[in-house]
Automatic annotation (TrEMBL):
Taxonomic lineage: Eukaryota, Viridiplantae, Streptophyta, Embryophyta, Tracheophyta
Keywords: ATP-binding, Hydrolase, Nucleotide-binding
Alphabetized InterPro entries for the sequence: Spast_Vps4_C
Protein name: P-loop containing nucleoside triphosphate hydrolases superfamily protein
Entry superkingdom: Eukaryota
Membrane-crossing segments per the record: none
Signal peptide: none
Stretches assigned to the Spastin/Vps4 C-terminal domain: 13-58
Native source species: Actinidia rufa
Pfam family, one: Vps4_C
Molecular-function annotations in GO: ATP binding; hydrolase activity
Amino acid sequence: MRRKIAGKTRDEIKNMSKDEISKDPVTMCDFEEAVTKVQPSVSAADIERHEKWFSEFGSA
């Protein structure tokens, strides 16, 4: 999508049809770039606390 809207004004983007914007498939490059921008949803401390709990009590 970003490639489709690059260099366009806000009005030009608003006037684009959804089909026009979504025709390009997601590439591996798109996926790899997105992965570098994603932040972890849990902290290392949360993972450690979960692992400790799991070793003590097991799965539910």
